[in-house]
Structures are given as structure tokens and as C-alpha cells.
Amino acid sequence: MGEPQEQRAGKRSMRASELAVWRDYVETSERVKRTLGAAFQETSGISPGDYSVMLALSEAPDRTLRSSDLAVVVGWERSRLSHHLRRMEARQLVLRGAVGGDARGAAITLSPTGAGVFRSSSAAHLRVVRDVFIDAFTAEQLEDMRVLTAALHRHLDAGRPAPEG
To answer: What is the predicted pLDDT for the residue at 164?
Structure first.
């Protein structure tokens, strides 16, 4: 698919074609997020953030994670997660408790109410994802997307420093 990033690493400025791809990616991904968010809220009454937290907790042993571990799983800063959990706790979607007597951390558990909301919203969420994202591509394009996102993940996981300049 062209010259790998490693071979372009010495270049300091972006070509117009590279900038156009970047802008298109940013604008399209933001539009997908907005569209999914509005559809999620409409179909289930919960936000994509609520769903992400409930998904992570539903997959955890005993439906419970330390708040610091939950922040890593959902990819949020701890302060953002803390504010979000406070709102979810007020709606009785999650429960907050101590972690084995350790006052420094909180254990976050998907409540029975939250588990019910998660179960009832999952099918609607998956239909929306199919409608907004999956159905936009052929099977071959989806495989290309998988390969491209895997490459981006590897690049980010490598912890590459930002280029100087």
C-alpha cells in the first residue's frame, strides 16, 4: 500500500495528499462517532461511554474492575472516568466499593440494573454499528480496514516519539 512510515520517517513536512488523507480520516471518524452516539442514545437511552464502561465490566470477573484498570480498558483518563462513573452510579448502573481494604482505589461493579440495561441495549447497539459502519464496506474493504487499523495499533503501541521539527 505504498511506502511504509519507517521509510518516510526522515521527512519533516506532510505532502498535500497525506494531509488530505489525515483530514478525511479525522472528519469521517468524528462523523461516525457523532452518528453512533446519537443513534445509541435514541435506541437505548445510554451514551456510547456508558456502553463502553458496561461492556468492560460485563467481561470482567464478577463484573468488577478497579477504577484504574477500567480507565485503561476504556482508554480514558482517570478523572474523566471518575466523573462518568459518578453519573452512572447516580442512575444505579454501577456500584462503587472498596478494593480489599485499600482506600486508594475503588472497585467498580456492574449493578443488576446496569446489567439489564446493557443486555437490552446490546442488540440495538450492534444493529446501529452494522448500519452506520459495517454496511458501508464490502468484505474485502473490511479486511483492508482490519489490516490498516492493526498497523496503526502496532505503531501506537511501539510508543514512537513525535518527530522533532
So the answer is: 43
